[in-house]
Each structure stands twice: as structure tokens, then as C-alpha cells.
Structure to design on (239 residues):
């Protein structure tokens, strides 16, 4: 049984059919990447999983149970945590306060484990440690992205949904973000990753799916898709 399974999922915005019969699965412990052009339906897929959008038809299970009727806030409590595109950190709060907010679902907020988890976020992202008392809104784009990931980890997710974590970042930050994604996964967090940066996304994916206009057109191990000439032509800027 996979941790997350979508079967023949359709989602629309009014008359715009954004997802057309999406079937995919995410195994516990894996990194699964979704790649595809702008408008292919990647963000829509993420929002459907996190509960921000409802299915028109199809099925979706998490840990073997129907997820479609579970409210979005309860999905967070069940371990599904999304880091949205565009980050969405709290600009008026300090780095430390933002991390605190990420742990709002936990009952152990005064415990040593909670502060240990905060320190772990600083180990992943040393730049945040230096800026722990700085307000989020004054951080650079890359630092805000790090904070958004650190904040999501404070909820102790079982399934982390990362939407375009490398978007708009300088190259040195991109490498760091992907390195940390692999580290987080090695510590046992399952990851569903949406990326425009297809080479990186396929490079670290155990399994990957290609979306085109709301449909899955290819799937396979990341390394297999990375080596495929048609994928290279279409998505990897290799000719
Ligand atoms: P991008 O990389 O540009 O974010 P994406 O693969 O994430 O692309 P989606 O954002 O999921 O694509 O969009 C899928 C389709 O749904 C597109 O045709 C898009 O125009 C449409 N769409 C997305 N959001 C809305 C919305 N709020 N209202 C109407 N149509 C929408």
C-alpha cells in the first residue's frame, strides 16, 4: 500500500478542467517529483492533496484511508504539510516566531523536543540561525524559502508537499535547498516535489511523473526519465 494514492482524479476551476484523470502514487519514504510546463496542473495537484481544492471525481487515499472527506486542517494534523509556491511566511514575525507558528498543531510546544526541532531547522539552514531574531519580511527570497521549509518541518510532517522550492533563487541557494530536501527525506519524511527545475527534480526523485495539460503522460524512476531523450528535449534543455 502506498502512503498516498490518487486514482482518476478530476479537478476543475469552473469551466476550466485543470486535472483530467490523474493517477499517481507516493510510496512511504520516497521523493516523488512532478514536472511539467506552466499550467500543466502541478499546483492544482498539490492543492487537491492538501485540501485547498475539491475533487470533481476520482479517489484519493492517504495511509489507506479516504482523504477526500477530510478537512484541510485535519490533513495537517495527519501529517500532510504543504509549503506553497510563493512561500507565505509571516513577514512581521521573527524567524523564531515563524518556526513556532509551524508547530501550532503540536501539543508539546514547551518541550525540549520542540526546541530541538527548532535547532534542527537551524542546522539545515545555518543562515536562519544567524537571523533568528530578524523579522521574516526583511529576509532575502532564498532565506524566506528556507524559513518556509523549516516552518513546515516544525509540524513533524509525514508527507511534505513542496511546490517550486527553487523558484526565483540564486544558484547557491538552489543547491542548498535540494541538498536539504534529500536530508529531510533521509530522516524519514516522504516528499512530493513540484519543480520547474526538472533536471534537479528528476535527479533526486525515486519516482517521477510528467504532467501535460492536466494529464499524466509519463512516469518512472527519476533516473530513467532523466536519461530519456524525449524528456531531455522537452524539459531539460538538452539537445
Ligand atoms: P505553474 O508552473 O505555472 O504554476 P502548474 O502546472 O502548477 O503551472 P496549475 O497552476 O495547476 O498549473 O494550473 C492548471 C490549469 O488550471 C491552468 O490551465 C490554469 O490556468 C488553471 N488555473 C489555475 N488556477 C486557476 C484558478 N484559480 N482559476 C481558474 N483557472 C485556474
Amino acid at each position: 500500500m502506498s502512503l498516498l494514492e490518487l486514482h482518476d482524479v478530476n479537478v476543475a476551476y469552473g469551466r476550466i478542467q485543470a486535472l483530467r484523470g490523474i493517477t499517481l502514487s507516493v510510496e512511504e519514504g520516497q521523493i516523488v517529483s512532478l514536472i511539467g510546463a506552466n499550467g500543466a496542473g502541478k499546483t492544482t495537484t498539490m492543492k487537491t492533496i492538501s485540501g485547498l481544492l475539491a475533487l470533481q471525481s476520482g479517489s484519493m487515499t492517504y495511509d489507506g484511508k479516504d482523504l477526500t472527506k477530510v478537512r484541510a486542517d485535519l490533513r495537517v494534523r495527519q501529517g500532510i504539510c504543504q509549503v506553497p509556491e510563493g512561500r507565505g511566511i509571516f513577514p512581521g514575525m521573527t524567524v523564531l516566531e515563524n518556526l513556532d507558528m509551524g508547530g501550532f498543531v503540536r501539543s508539546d510546544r514547551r518541550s525540549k523536543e520542540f526546541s530541538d526541532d527548532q535547532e534542527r531547522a537551524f542546522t539545515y539552514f545555518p543562515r536562519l540561525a544567524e537571523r533568528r531574531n530578524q523579522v521574516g519580511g526583511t529576509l532575502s527570497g532564498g532565506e524566506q524559502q528556507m524559513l518556509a521549509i523549516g516552518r513546515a518541518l516544525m509540524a513533524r510532517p509525514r508527507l511534505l508537499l513542496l511546490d517550486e522550492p527553487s523558484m526565483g533563487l540564486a544558484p547557491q541557494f538552489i543547491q542548498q535547498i535540494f541538498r536539504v530536501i534529500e536530508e529531510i527525506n533521509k530522516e524519514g519524511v516522504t516528499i512530493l516535489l513540484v519543480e520547474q527545475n526538472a533536471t534537479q527534480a528528476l535527479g533526486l526523485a525515486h519516482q517521477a511523473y510528467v504532467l501535460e495539460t492536466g494529464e499524466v503522460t509519463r512516469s518512472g524512476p527519476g533516473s530513467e526519465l532523466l536519461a530519456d531523450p524525449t524528456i531531455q528535449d522537452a524539459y531539460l534543455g538538452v539537445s
Summary: The pocket of adenosine-5'-triphosphate is lined by residues 13, 16, 18, 36, 38-44 (CB under 6 Å). The two ends are 39 Å apart (CA to CA). The beta strands are 4-13, 16-26, 31-35, 57-62, 65-66, 80-83, 159-163, 190-194, 207-212, 215-220.
